[in-house]
Write a structure and sequence with these properties.
Length: 374
Amino acid sequence: MGSVDVFSKAKSMDFPRSVILGHDAILKTRDLCDSLKFGEAGVMVTGGESYSAAGRAICESMSERYDVRVVRTGIANSEGVDRVCAEVEGSGASFILAVGGGSKIDTAKMAAKKTGMPFVSIPTSVSHDGIASDRASLKSDAGSNSVAAVSPIGIIADTSVISAAPYRYLASGCADVISNLTALKDWELARKEKSEEFSSSAYFLAKYAADNLVENCGLIKSGMEESVWLVMRPIIASGISMCAAGSSRPTSGSEHMFSHALDTLYPGKKSLHGEQCGIGAIMMMCLHGGDWKTILEALRTIGAPTTAEELELADDDIIEALVMARSMREDRYTILGDKGISRREARSVAKRTGVIGGRRRRSHRQKPPCESPE
């Protein structure tokens, strides 16, 4: 009877229907909208730099057939989502275009969920793997919060636009995907020790994405559009793995809890989400007793940070975040166990992996907040 219960479960999985990847891909936006049979009115969620990089060209190419209202937003928060929803409802729009980096895409995801409108993800930079996922990260006074949203109905990744963005964002996106390796270790552990629900398809999508970037790390370089070609498929696959799992489980484990702890403790820091997850993955793989040195070398080769100093943080900042990490997701079992790790254990793993050893004093001085790239 147990097997009958398993097969009687109903599960919904929504995936992007169309993906356009390549040079000058943004010029295909109208064709994609035509193929998806959108109505004449739409809303574009973008920012100042993102509009200059891609939004204007998209509006011009669509102007003969579509009326696209432009909404410029800042960080992804509830206020920005409400502004987009109001524009969608007030204009009678039938679709949303998200043109920008993580904050614009996350804002569009939540607005699409609230209004029931389909949205197209058009990244101008890729600092993490959220361009294809059905999860969004919204900011508030309490920090960042990962919430269920909707997946894009289409993705347009213009390699020429993305390669023109600062290389740091691409390296951060790679680090975020490579950190899947520890998230998956944590998922396997939770499956074994807590009988947690598991999805083989989601697991292998996330594993493929991370392994692909590790194996090809030597080909990922600044100023090369070919590198963006190489990186986009694994980043999209990583996002889709979350759609298959119905959660962020295949791409978010103890390394993300470490990153969220840094966000909570030091909101004025300058480091990016993917950069923090990459460094977290080095240390968490060491705790797992796995091959952390391969992660370290891949990140170094790509040009992502591997030390506290490169994040512009002090040794003690890393230790505090490691000790606090377990409390960031009480519902998620990882290598940090039920109670987390001690300060002594945290210092030991950070020192062994070379993450600490530079600045000893705390560095959480006031700095301009680091927002997701447009």
